[in-house]
Amino acid sequence: MDPLLDEKFILIVSQIIPEQFQKTLQIQAEREAYGPSKNEGLCFENCTCVKFAGDLNGKIYLGLDGFTKLKLLPKIANTFQIDPTSKAHSTSIMMEFANQISGHLISEMRLGRYQIDILTPENLNNKLVPISLENYRQYILIFFLKDRREEEYLGRLYCVLLLEKFPKIL
Predict the structure, then answer these.
(1) Are 94 and 75 in contact, with CB atoms under 8 Å apart?
(2) Hey, CA dihedral for 98, 86, 72, 125, is it positive or negative?
(3) How far apart are CA 83 and CA 90, in angstroms?
(4) Which of 133, 104, 98 is nearest to 116 (CA)?
(5) Within 10 A of 67 (CB to CB), how many other CB atoms are there?
(6) What is the dihedral sign for C-alpha 37, 41, 42, 48?
């Protein structure tokens, strides 16, 4: 067991999200806050959950408020070359973007010799999601999003990371 596993995972998340935003959208994502959290639930206007399993089990929630989603959606859709005006497409566009971030994160963990696979992303828009503090360690990372080319504030991305606690030894 690696005693620094949580810290490694958080550092990789802190590296991957800004890289992914810069590379795909030309947007700055600066980590504004980070810390362990004891929230018993979450709810965002736009929320995607990606579960992962293997040497480490857990979930990543990427949450946005409505303002941020409306600002990001055209930029993400343009990257995927999809029409963002269709409501049916907007959810799948945001889920695919979260899936790409998670896939990149898991690839980095595999480079560190951890065997982890991601599962299908889940749409949790406007849903109250309970979190079991008994089963998970919880961390929250908040990223400030800004398009420096257009000098435009785009909002914040909330990344909630749940890592399954190790079973108690009797």
Answers:
(1) no
(2) negative
(3) 9
(4) 104
(5) 13
(6) positive
- Give the residue ranges of DSSP H helices in the chain: 5-25, 66-80, 87-111
pTM: 0.90
CB-based contacts of 43, cutoff 8 Å, min separation 6: 126, 127, 128, 129
Residue 163 amino acid letter: L
Mark 80-97 as b/e (b = at least 16 C-beta within 10 Å). eebebeeeebbeebbbbb
Residue 137 · residue 163 · CB < 8 Å = yes
Taken as a whole, the chain contains a residue count of 170
pLDDT in tens, 35-58: 999 999 999 999 999 999 998 899
The whole-angstrom separation of Cα 120 and Cα 141 is 22
